[in-house]
Amino acid sequence: MKRILTTLSILLALSLNLHAEKMEMIDTNGTHYNVIAEGDDIKIEGMEGKVVFLEFFGLKCPACKKEMPHLINLQKKYPNKLKIMAIEVQKNDNDPINAFKKLHGINYTTFSNFDVGFVVRYIANKSNWQGVIPFIIAIDSKGKVQFSQAGIIDEETLEKHVENFSK
Question: Are 150 and 124 in contact (CB under 8 A)?
Answer without folding.
Answer: no
